[in-house]
Every structure is written in structure tokens, then in C-alpha cells.
Specification:
Helix content is 54%, strand content 9%. It has 211 residues and is α+β, with helices and mostly antiparallel strands.
Length: 211
């Protein structure tokens, strides 16, 4: 068994962690769960009482926040690769984008996912889902302003965990059928990210686990 174990649902928030593991070339054990695991894999609650993914287990360390985990993996297991150091002029931007992807962008998407798709038909709230869909699209203004000139990276001159964090939010938006509404610079940026070997390897890893 590898030292790192990731509990994951296909294309859920935990994809950030799977993508980071592949980008860093770290060995890991992947445990694929049905979504949502708290409903369809009750035994998972013994590992994570929240019933959410991701769960990363690294010896005695247990982590459940996807943006924090990708930074942790880079700093603890990869000598800081794919991060920016505190002395870097874009360090503040790196941290901001790292957390922006989850706190600002993915949060409203989870409301759309729940009230448009996951709840039983009688409990769905189309108006609520549409409000949060528009909220998410409005929150993309910052990323679009940063990416409209065709740049490939959100912070610094190279790919970082910040790109993974925000990139996942765009990936989820596509799964939610928002492609026609995404701003062009942001969508083109994600299309380039989705051609990275690490992204493709993460997709292949979850497909192999599902099979």
C-alpha cells in the first residue's frame, strides 16, 4: 500500500487532488466511491464522518479540503513544486487563486448541483439553482480579467496548484452544462489545461478505477 491514500468520487472536488498527484508524479492508492458517498457508501463515514470527498490519508495526517491538500502535497512531498514561495512577487496572488477556486467559485456550483440535479424531483428548486448559476458566472469576472490576454497561468510564469484549483471549477461548470455561458478567455485557458499530461492521467486513473 502506498503512503498516500485518496478517497475520491469521479469528477468531484477530489479531482483536484488526483490531478495534483499525477502532476507531481507521486505514488498513491485511489479509492473510488459512488457519489454522494454519504448516501451510497455508508461505511465511508467510518473514515470521514462528514461523508465528503476528498479524504487524503498520509500516515497520521488526514485532510478533507481540496485546495489545502494540493498545496500540502506539493510542500510536503514535492519540495514546493507547482507552488510559489513566500518571497515570490506573485505569492499573494498564488494563495488568493488557490482558495478562490474553492471558496468563491465551487461553492455556488454545489448549490446548482444539489437543487438542479441531485435532490429528488419534488425537492428541486429551479429558481434557486438558476440564482446560484448566475452567481457563479458573475464570480468568474476576476478570472476572465486575468486570462483575457491569453496567458496560460493564473499566478507567476508557470503552472501551479492555483491553476488546478480554479481549473477544476471550470471543469465542473462544463459538467453542469454551462459551456455556452463561460467567458471566452477562461474557457480557452481551461481547454489548454485539459491537454496537460497530468490532467489526462488523472482522468485515466479514475476511469481505470471505475472499470
Amino acid at each position: 500500500m502506498s503512503a498516500l491514500t485518496l478517497w475520491h468520487c469521479a469528477d468531484a472536488r477530489s479531482f483536484r487532488v488526483l490531478w495534483a498527484l499525477e502532476e507531481l508524479g507521486l505514488p498513491y492508492e485511489l479509492k473510488l466511491l459512488p457519489f454522494p458517498p454519504r448516501a451510497f457508501e455508508k461505511s465511508y463515514l467510518d473514515h470521514n464522518p462528514l461523508g465528503t470527498v476528498p479524504l487524503l490519508v498520509d500516515g497520521k495526517t488526514r485532510m478533507t479540503e481540496s485546495a489545502a491538500i494540493v498545496h500540502y502535497l506539493a510542500m510536503v512531498h514535492a519540495g514546493g513544486r507547482l507552488t510559489l514561495a513566500p518571497g515570490h512577487p506573485d505569492y499573494g496572488a498564488y494563495l488568493n487563486w488557490l482558495h478562490h477556486g474553492e471558496a468563491t467559485l465551487t461553492f455556488p456550483q454545489t448549490i446548482v448541483l444539489r437543487y438542479a440535479l441531485l435532490e429528488p424531483q419534488e425537492r428541486r428548486q429551479p429558481a434557486v439553482a438558476d440564482d446560484y448559476r448566475r452567481w457563479f458566472l458573475g464570480r468568474l469576472r476576476l478570472a476572465e480579467a486575468a486570462l483575457a490576454d491569453g496567458r496560460d497561468h493564473l499566478a507567476g510564469a508557470t503552472f501551479t496548484m492555483a491553476d488546478i484549483s480554479v481549473g477544476y471549477a471550470i471543469m465542473l461548470a462544463l459538467r453542469l452544462g454551462m459551456e455556452a455561458d463561460l467567458p471566452p478567455g477562461t474557457l480557452a485557458w481551461f481547454r489548454r489545461l485539459a491537454q496537460r499530461p497530468g490532467f489526462l492521467a488523472a482522468k485515466a486513473a479514475q476511469e481505470k478505477a471505475a472499470a
